[in-house]
């Protein structure tokens, strides 16, 4: 019955038997026969057929919806069973910069986990320096970070893309009416940075000396806390934008930051140790690169 349920789901999602058959790599007549056998087993019509089209019956709509939950539980059962048989699964430990808010990493993890179902993938966020130290100490296998150092020959250094510095401000803030802002105009303005207590001096120096921001800094340890400072109008939040969002949150507006008329850009890279024996990191890197815009 499981295979027939999968065929039924494909028919519903494709909207016709021809595309569903191609998706399932079977003939159109075969998938039609299997769906009919499923209806016979269930005991009620799931599809109302109209010449070359069909619609879901009320029972069919219910069966389709519940079958998705069943499929999800089955996937979890299979994954749990595999973990019991192979408790020492290969691990891929990822780290990413807290200022990075893009979707590329999430997309890459989704694609990689589909092709490497046995891999145990985890991810943590951190400051630039904390991620570097964790990678150096073998606590992380691959890090997505902005480039602040000269590339080291001890690591693989893969440029993924270039971010543009933006600030997030409350949509109620007068600053939200600006189309852009020069970094010198932000001097003395309240700014929230995401950093643990041990990382605050490092982040303050970077934004002051390397970027020339020289704002009045306050700190939050999580993005959620920092966003509260933004939406309540207490501070702006610097963020690195690689792929512009299709839609912004109503409570927040992102404004590009310039210096002397030019966008402030940073290289975002994947870093991982050479010869570390972590083949998953080597396999993950090209998948990650493909998810970033050219």
CATH topology of the largest domain: D-Maltodextrin-Binding Protein, domain 2
Structural class: alpha/beta
Largest sheet: 9 strands, mixed
Overall 3D shape = elongated
Radius of gyration: 25 Å
Number of helices: 9
Distance between the termini: 45 Å
Strand count = 13
- Based on the structure, what is the oligomeric state of the protein chains? single chain
Structural account:
This protein is α/β, with parallel strands linked by helices and 294 residues long. It has 3 domains: 2-85, Winged helix-like DNA-binding domain superfamily/Winged helix DNA-binding domain (Arc Repressor Mutant, subunit A); 91-161 and 267-291, 3-Layer(aba) Sandwich (D-Maltodextrin-Binding Protein, domain 2); 163-266, Periplasmic binding protein-like II (D-Maltodextrin-Binding Protein, domain 2, 3-Layer(aba) Sandwich). The chain is built from 9 helices and 13 strands. It has helices spanning 2-14, 17-24, 28-42, 58-85, 104-115, 128-136, 200-210, 223-231, 279-291, and strands at residues 47-50, 53-56, 91-97, 120-126, 142-146, 155-170, 181-182, 190-194, 216-220, 237-241, 252-259, 262-263, 265-273. The strands form 3 sheets. Strands 3, 4, 5, 6, 7, 10, 11, 12 and 13 form a 9-stranded mixed β-sheet that branches. A two-stranded antiparallel ribbon has the order 1-2. Strand 8 (190-194), helix 7 (200-210) and strand 9 form a beta-alpha-beta unit. Helix 1 packs across helix 2, helix 1 packs across helix 3 and helix 2 (17-24) packs across helix 3. The chain is elongated, with a radius of gyration of 25 Å.
